[in-house]
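User: Show me an example of a complex going from sequences to structure tokens.

Assistant: Sure. Here are the input components:
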Amino acid sequence: MSSREHILSRIKKHKPQLIELPDLSVFAHEINTEKLVNDFINTSTTNASTVVNMIGQSINFDTYIPLFIAENFGDNAITYTPLNSSNKEILDFKSNHIDVFVTQPQIAVAENGCMWIHDKQMQQRIAAFASEHTLFIVDHKTIVPTMHQAYKALQINAHGYGVFIAGPSKTADIEQSLVIGAQGAVSNTVILV
Amino acid sequence: MSIHAKKASDFISNEERTNWHDGALWHVRNKRDISASKIPEWELLRSTASQIKENVLSNLDNYLIQFEEEAKKNGVHVHWAANDDEHNSIVSAILNKHNAKKVVKSKSMLTEECGLNHFLEDQGIEIIDTDLGERIIQLRDEPPSHIVLPAIHIKKEEVGELFHAKLGTEKGNADPTYLTRAARTHLNHKFFEADAAITGVNFAIAETGGIVICTNEGNADMGCHSAPVHIHCMGLEKLLPKAEHLGVFIRLLARSATGQPSTIYTSHYHKPESGKEMHIVIVDNGRSEQLGKEDFRNSLKCIRCGACMNTCPIYRRSGGHSYHATIPGPIGAILQPNRNLQEYSDLPFASTLCGSCSDVCPVKINIHEQLYKWRQEIYKHNELPKSKIIPLKVTTNILASSTMYNIMGKLARTSLKLLPDFLLYNKLNTWGKNRELPAPPKESFKEWYKKNKHE
């Protein structure tokens, strides 16, 4: 008997009587746009993200974003973005330093600042992690209260890979001292539109 | 003296350090409380999570079959390992197939349990732990002392010295930011050199065949996305039925662990990136046996948040290494005896049975009750040391007879008062170690009650 069969037969023999799954509809949360936006700004800020609130202002992304990057990350900052990109070449992140990774998450979560991005919004998965800084453009209408609503709205396997990112990478592994910038991005900026 | 007692006694010999360790963990426990109190439906989340996990255990074989089928459809290679040896051989075979000599690994208690690092190192493979805390203890050649905070027992000055010796940082510099940056640069090279990446798994989804990994540092993703092949090792109890169940568990995990509302990265892997290879190793290693033990199967619900460690008065003051086990603390003390009753028979006694662990457990494992049940199992299997058996027998006789009880009570009250210190405070009386015995009362409650019952 293979290990697979052996394991499965032992589980079958040992498992208890079937217990039903609980009802998840009990986790309902108020949808109040103003509160969602405020909560999202608060949780993101707590997670050490910089939030720029541009809600209600008409922006021309093509000019605003490059200007924003130049002002905040330097005139020569190298940007990587799958947005409006016709360049499908695979970039070698080992030999190419990227300053800013820019994308537009599909969904954002008020309770914890999580923002969902998937393969299409990254082009290359490593980009969201190996770039020095991340910059997310979040449409405030995509903010949901909690992870329950997020998973309801998403199809986690619509793409081969998807990730919730809630801020810059961090660690407190040395004496519980919080350090922003561990192995992933060292800063995260959210532009709320 | 039991191993735990011996190691704990070594740990507390440095009082200042013990207090520091105790305080650091209590601080984390506090953050958990603050975070949980902000969620009005917290208790509902806990009971829901508990029931989901109970459903999983009661239908585990079917969920595993479904998970495998879906994962294979996604182009993922699925392997089954009955025990630690088989797990290590599977991983090693994958690495050999790819001629992988340099491997990066993100935190995985399962690979610790299986002793993967040493197994691979013996074959000449370089394996680098990429979580900062894990890297610190790896460079010190030590096991983790906590499942979420592996280097919680180490002071920054010690990390400074270690990094100076191993990574060439400035001598005497113990600034956490400076040291973290040095590790970032060091690990960045390792990620891009790696031939393969290995990770643990926080959750696996039967419905979609995908796995979820939670980190703050981004190290699991850096590894998986830079190496041509990634291997995910999971205990077979990690399954959840559907994606929607993740909502419950992601909300609970980080809040229980460190008080954060979620980890910074919650990564969902379903398919490898084009041109790459993805493997999942499903590991039993005693879990399917444990499932058959009615009193103890509940411990398989554990999601490895570490909340029970942070709250435990024994863990905080004895340190993770005193448990001489992969998983320390209260949850370790009920998981380890399943593996080897003889070797870990001391662990269920490393508890005051105060129940705080059960109170904070996000999936409502009855940890303190299981600790108590393990004590009975250990007695039944004759694994109790003489130092416990003899006093237990004597106490049984005393408590069984009211005459004996009255006499012994009186004797104790008198002797506590009259006996010289060297008889009270010596090696044989462990209750007199490091503490003053209480002042004896003049009379027993029974005597007092007799005198006063008519008043």
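The lines above are the inputs; the final block is the predicted structure for all two components together. The two ends of chain A are 59 Å apart (CA to CA).
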